[in-house]
Automatic annotation (TrEMBL):
GO terms for cellular component: membrane. This is Fatty acid desaturase domain-containing protein. It comes from Limnohabitans parvus II-B4. GO terms for biological process: ceramide biosynthetic process. The chain crosses the membrane at residues 26-46, 52-70, 180-201. One of its GO terms (molecular function) is sphingolipid delta-4 desaturase activity. It holds the Pfam family FA_desaturase. Residues 50-282 form the Fatty acid desaturase domain. PANTHER family: SPHINGOLIPID DELTA 4 DESATURASE/C-4 HYDROXYLASE PROTEIN DES2, SPHINGOLIPID DELTA(4)-DESATURASE DES1. It comes from the Bacteria. Residues 304-324 are annotated as: Disordered. Keywords: Membrane, Transmembrane, Transmembrane helix.
Length: 324
């Protein structure tokens, strides 16, 4: 069991951190899709290798942003209105990037109940670290080449088809599970086709989802729980990575880098996590918290094993569908 360390909040602070906003939730979802649309338009207007790379990085970052907003919806923190929270969180945030809010919520709440303990379903993501640099770069190559993204989808397909007694039933199970991902992606394809740039779905939506999205999801997973201090201390078994706005834009959208604060105050909307961080520092908890300056410093700690050891890598790939 983790220790009961919990920073105390005044009634006013507690009320502030708990307060959700339908307007802010709507803004964040529109912001994510607006940035994706602008990045697509940027490459379409100025097509060249550099603008393509910029578009892929920005779009992949906002695809992760959609997953993060779905994560907020899983905590019912995206919108104050519960029905709006679950509908928008599923249809506009989760489904387009291949994630199910319904399936994710119980899985993720179990991660919060058992953080870094043997019952934690996400423990397999952090347990292998530290790893060697050669092992890390092999993973990065698979991610950027789309191999990880492809393997994840195939793993989802196998899980969703299950052990039904007939081939027809297995395909029915797959259709039932994947119909919303297919529907939302068909809508995205329809919008690009109607705009006369049908190819943009493949090059500027699906490609980032299979490549850059995988890269930054891995780095974010490493930063949150790998090589942390004390797995039994709530202030040390989760990390907050302090970084600049540029890194947040491409690697840690919507304040996901404040992960320790999120674990301490799970009811808090993502846009209030910086305020939660300031409250903790003001109460003098800073020296006891797992804080790291920048993702480069995190990776130096996580990629510090002297010998190459990729044992369990297949398992990690299969289980790396955890989003946040």
């Amino acid at each position: 069991m983790t220790t009961d360390t919990q920073p105390s909040l005044s009634p006013e602070q507690n009320a502030y951190l708990r307060e959700r906003s339908d307007w802010m939730g709507a803004y964040l979802v529109l912001h994510a899709w607006g940035v994706i649309a602008l990045a697509m338009a940027f490459f379409i207007a100025w097509p060249n290798p550099l603008s393509f790379i910029v578009a892929v990085v920005v779009i992949g970052g906002r695809q992760l942003g959609l997953a993060i907003l779905m994560h907020d919806a899983a905590h019912r923190a995206l919108f104050k209105n519960t029905r709006l929270n679950d509908t928008v969180g599923a249809f506009l945030c989760g489904w387009p990037v291949g994630a199910s809010l319904t399936l994710y919520r119980p899985y993720h709440l179990s991660h919060h109940r058992h953080t870094q303990q043997k019952e934690d379903p996400d423990l397999i993501l952090s347990a292998p670290f530290p790893i060697s640099s050669s092992s890390f770069w092999r993973k990065m190559r698979r991610d950027i080449l789309g191999i990880t993204g492809y393997q994840r989808r195939m793993e989802f397909f196998r899980m969703e088809m299950g052990d039904a007694p007939s081939r027809l039933q297995r395909w029915k199970n797959l259709f039932q599970a994947e119909k919303y991902f297919a529907l939302t992606n068909l809508l995205i394809f329809g919008v690009t086709a109607a705009a006369g740039v049908w190819w943009a779905y493949w090059a500027l939506w699906l490609l980032p989802l299979l490549t850059w999205y995988q890269v930054i999801s891995r780095i974010r997973n490493i930063a949150e729980h790998a090589v942390v201090g004390n797995n039994d201390d709530r202030l040390r078994n989760t990390r907050t990575t302090l970084t600049n706005w540029g890194m947040r834009m491409v690697l840690a959208p919507y304040w996901v880098n404040y992960h320790l604060e999120h674990h301490l105050f799970v009811f808090t909307p993502c846009w209030k996590l910086p305020a939660a961080h300031r409250m903790l520092i003001e109460q003098g908890f800073g020296p006891r918290m797992e804080l790291t300056q920048g993702y480069r410093a995190v990776l130096r700690k996580a990629v510090s094993k002297p010998h190459d050891d990729d044992a369990g890598n297949g398992k990690q790939r299969g289980q790396s569908n955890a989003l946040i």
